[in-house]
Design brief:
The protein has 675 residues and is α/β, with parallel strands linked by helices. Helices cover 49% and strands 12% of the residues. The strands form four sheets. A seven-stranded parallel sheet has the order 13-14-12-15-16-11-17, with helices on one face. A six-stranded parallel sheet has the order 3-2-6-7-1-8.
C-alpha cells in the first residue's frame, strides 16, 4: 500500500457500500483496481467472491496475474477476471435451467451478416424498398438492443438523422414495416437454430436477473464484490446487468467520463454522471494526479475540457512536473504532414537515442494514414497499425474455424455453408443440398460417413479435413495443425496475393492459442468472444502479446478509438483541423460534439514527454473558415491560448506525390423492442 498516493489509498480502503472512482487519464486506475482486490483478499474476502469486469481479456488477465503475483496463487487462485461477454457466457453454461437455454451456438458479426443476407433474400420485396445493406441492418439491430431504444427511435437515429419534422415521419412510415419484417425474420432464424449473437448473451442474463427474483438470488449471491473497469464505456444493457447486484454485493466502478468515446457502440457516459442517482448508498471519489504526462501536456488537455459546456469536474496534475510545451504544426497536405513526422522520428532515432516504439501516431482513421504509411515504407521506418479488423476476424482464420465449428456442433448451419463453399465446384446450391442431409443426421460421425460416400475430389478433400479435426478433437493443438495442413492448399489459392507474408504466419499463432484451452467448444467460444467488443481493437491482443515478447521496435500507428491503454514518449495527433475535430455531421448536436471533444482529449493524453498536433494551414484562418452549418466556435482549437502551444508552419517541400503514391502497392427472452 505504500506505493499508493493518498487518494488511491482512500479508494482502495473504501468501506462503504458502492463506490464510483473517477480516474483521470494516467492516474493509475489499473494499479488502484489491483490494490483494491489485494486489500479485499488480505482482509478475508474469499477470492472466489470477487469478480473483476473489464472490456478486454488482456486487461482482465493482467489484473488477475498481478494480484496473484502479489498474494501468491494459493490465496488468489479463484479470483475471477473476465469481459462482460465471457462472464455472461459462463453464467449461461453454468446455469442453463436458470436462464432457460442450453446447447446454443455463438455467432459473430460476420455470421450475423450472413443470416441477415439470407433473411433479406427471403424478404426481397421488403429489402428492395430499403436501399440499405445487411451490414447496416445488423448494426442498427445491435445498437437498438445495447441502448434499449425501440425500433422507431433507432431508425430515426441511424437512418433519418439528416431529415427533420414531417419529412422524417413520412420516411419512417415508409421503411419501418420493411425493417421490422426483416428483423423479426432474423430473430426467428436465430431461435430456429439456437444461435446467440453477442448481444443475446448479455440480454438473456440481464433480462432474467431483472425479472426473476429466484435467478437474482442464485446468481447475485455468488459475489460479494464486483470491480468494474472502464465504467464510462458501459451501455444501458450492461448497466441492466450490473444493477441487480446492488442489493447483494458491493460495486467498485472505475472510469473517466472524459474518456467516453464509444457512443456509436451504445456506450453512455451518463452511467457515470448519474451514478449517485442510480446507485443507492454510493459515493464518488476522484484521482487527478497524473503519472504519465508532463504538466504542459496536461494544461492543453485540461483547457480542452474546460471549454466544454458539460461539467467534467476534474483537473489533472502532473506528478512528473514540467516538460516540453506541445507543438502545433500547420501543414499544407497529408504528404507534407507525413514527411514531417518521418523526419522527426528519424531525428529522434539517430540523434536522441529514442527507439521507434517510443513514438505513437494517432488518427481518426487508418485510411487517413495511407500517405504516412507510404512514407514510412520509403524511409524504412518500421511500424505496426492498431485498429480495423482483429485477428480472429480475419477471413483465412475464419475459414479454418468453420471446420472446427462444424466438428464441435454439426448443427452449425452458418459454419457448414462457409466450410463447404470453400471447395472448388461446391456453390451455394450444392452446399445447401449437403447441409439439408447433414442436419438430418444424428452426429458428426454419421456426417463424415455420409460425406465419404461422395465421389467428387473436393468432397474427398473436405471430408479428410473434417475427419482429421474430429480424430484430434481432444488434442486442440493437433486438431488446429491437422486442419490447417488439409486446408492450406485451398487457402493459399484463395488468398494468393498476400498468402505468404500476411496470412500464412497467423496459423502457428492459432496453434499457440489452442494450447491454452481444454476443449474445442471452449476454444471456439472464447476466440469468438474476443471479437465481441471493438474497443481497443489492436490487430490481435493475443498476437500482439507474442510480438511484444520478440521485442520488435516499431512505431505504432493507431486510430484514436483503438488508442486507450496506449502511451508513448512522443505522440503525434494528426489533422486536428476544422471539419475534423469536431466532424461536420456532429455540429448542432451537443452530445455528438462533446463525444468529439472527448475523442481529442483521449488522443492528447496519450503523450508522456512530447505532444505534436498537426492541422491544415487553413485552420490558422478559422475566423474566416466556414462550412455549411459550422460556426467558428465549433472548431476545438479556435481561440487556443498562445502560451499552451508552440506553433509552427511547415513550408512546402518538393516531392512527387504521384511517385510516392505508386509505392503503396426453448424460447428465451431476447430480442428488441419493435415499437
Amino acid at each position: 500500500m505504500t506505493e499508493l498516493n493518498e487518494n488511491q489509498k482512500k479508494a482502495v480502503e473504501f468501506g462503504g457500500k458502492h463506490l464510483l472512482l473517477l480516474a483521470g487519464a494516467g492516474t493509475g486506475k489499473t494499479k488502484t483496481i489491483i490494490a483494491r482486490a489485494i486489500d479485499l483478499i488480505s482482509k478475508g474476502v474469499p477470492s472466489n467472491k470477487i469478480l473483476i469486469l473489464t472490456f478486454t481479456k488482456r486487461s482482465a488477465q493482467e489484473i488477475v496475474t498481478r494480484v496473484e503475483s502479489a498474494l501468491g496463487v494459493s490465496q488468489s487462485k479463484s479470483l475471477s477476471g473476465s469481459t462482460f461477454h465471457s462472464w455472461c457466457n459462463h453464467l449461461l453454461l453454468a446455469h442453463p435451467n436458470v436462464f432457460g437455454i442450453k446447447d446454443f451456438i455463438i455467432i459473430d458479426e460476420d455470421d450475423q451478416i450472413n443470416i441477415m443476407k439470407l433473411i433479406c433474400g427471403k424478404n426481397s420485396l421488403h429489402f428492395e424498398n430499403l436501399r440499405i445493406k445487411p451490414q447496416e441492418l445488423v448494426d442498427m439491430y445491435s445498437f437498438a438492443r445495447n441502448t434499449k431504444l425501440n425500433l422507431t427511435e433507432t431508425i430515426k437515429i441511424k437512418l433519418l438523422s439528416d431529415l427533420k419534422g414531417e419529412e422524417a415521419e413520412k420516411m419512417l412510415l415508409q421503411i419501418k414495416p420493411s425493417i421490422e419484417a426483416i428483423l423479426r425474420g432474423y430473430e426467428a432464424k436465430k431461435r430456429e437454430r439456437n444461435y446467440l449473437d453477442y448481444d443475446d448473451i448479455l440480454q438473456i442474463v440481464a433480462k432474467t436477473l431483472q425479472k426473476d427474483e429466484n435467478a437474482r438470488k442464485i446468481i447475485c449471491r455468488k459475489y460479494e464484490h464486483i470491480l468494474v473497469d472502464e465504467m464510462q464505456d458501459t451501455n444501458p444493457l450492461q448497466w441492466d446487468l450490473l444493477s441487480p447486484f446492488q442489493e447483494f454485493c458491493h460495486l467498485f466502478c472505475v472510469g473517466d467520463d472524459a474518456q467516453s468515446i464509444y457512443s456509436f457502440r451504445g456506450a453512455d457516459f451518463k452511467n457515470i454522471h448519474n451514478f449517485k442517482d442510480n446507485v443507492k448508498e454510493s459515493e464518488v471519489y476522484k484521482l487527478e494526479d497524473n503519472y504519465r504526462s508532463t504538466q504542459e501536456i496536461l494544461d492543453l488537455s485540461n483547457w480542452l475540457l474546460e471549454k466544454s459546456p458539460l461539467n467534467y469536474d476534474k483537473k489533472l496534475r502532473a506528478v512528473r512536473g514540467a516538460g516540453i510545451i506541445p507543438q502545433l504544426i500547420n501543414v499544407e497536405s497529408d504528404w507534407e504532414e507525413a514527411y514531417f513526422i518521418a523526419d522527426k522520428i528519424l531525428d529522434n532515432f539517430h540523434h536522441k537515442n529514442k527507439e521507434f516504439k517510443s513514438h505513437l501516431v494517432l488518427s481518426r482513421s487508418q485510411f487517413y494514414t495511407r500517405s504516412l504509411q507510404a512514407v514510412f515504407i520509403e524511409k524504412k521506418i518500421p511500424f505496426i497499425t492498431y485498429g480495423g479488423r482483429g485477428f480472429m476476424e480475419s477471413a483465412h482464420l475464419k475459414d479454418l474455424f468453420a471446420a472446427l465449428r462444424v466438428v464441435n456442433n454439426k448443427n452449425d448451419e452458418i459454419a457448414w455453408i462457409r466450410f463447404l463453399t470453400l471447395w472448388k465446384g461446391i456453390g451455394d446450391v450444392r452446399a445447401s443440398t449437403y447441409l439439408e442431409k447433414m442436419l438430418g443426421l444424428s452426429n458428426m460421425e454419421e456426417c463424415i460417413s455420409w460425406l465419404q460416400t461422395l465421389s467428387g475430389l473436393s468432397e474427398q478433400k473436405l471430408t479428410k479435413t473434417l475427419k482429421s479435426i474430429f480424430d484430434n478433437r481432444h488434442n486442440l493443438v493437433q486438431a488446429v495443425h491437422q486442419g490447417y495442413e488439409e486446408l492450406k492448399e485451398q487457402l493459399s489459392v484463395k488468398y494468393l496475393e498476400d498468402w505468404e507474408n500476411k496470412r500464412k504466419p497467423d496459423f502457428p499463432v492459432l496453434e499457440v492459442l489452442a494450447s491454452k484451452y481444454s476443449n474445442l467448444g471452449e476454444f471456439i467460444t472464447e476466440c469468438l468472444l474476443d471479437n465481441s467488443v471493438k474497443i481497443n481493437n489492436s490487430p490481435t491482443l493475443q498476437k500482439a502479446t507474442i510480438e511484444q515478447s520478440e521485442n520488435k521496435d516499431k512505431v505504432i500507428i493507431s486510430t484514436i478509438h483503438s488508442a486507450k491503454g496506449l502511451e508513448a514518449d512522443t505522440c503525434f495527433v494528426l489533422n486536428v483541423s476544422p471539419a475534423q475535430f469536431p466532424l461536420t455531421y456532429s455540429i448542432g448536436n451537443l452530445d455528438e460534439v462533446e463525444e468529439e471533444r472527448r475523442i481529442l482529449y483521449v488522443a492528447l493524453t496519450r503523450a508522456k514527454d512530447e505532444l505534436i498536433v498537426t492541422r491544415t494551414k487553413k485552420s490558422i484562418y478559422a475566423e474566416n473558415y466556414q462550412l455549411e452549418n459550422q460556426t467558428v466556435e465549433s472548431y476545438f482549437l479556435n481561440e487556443l491560448p498562445e502560451n499552451l502551444v508552440e506553433q509552427k508552419t511547415i513550408g512546402i517541400r518538393s516531392w512527387s506525390v504521384e511517385a510516392t503514391d505508386n509505392q503503396q502497392n426453448n424460447v428465451v427472452d431476447f430480442g428488441m423492442d419493435f415499437s
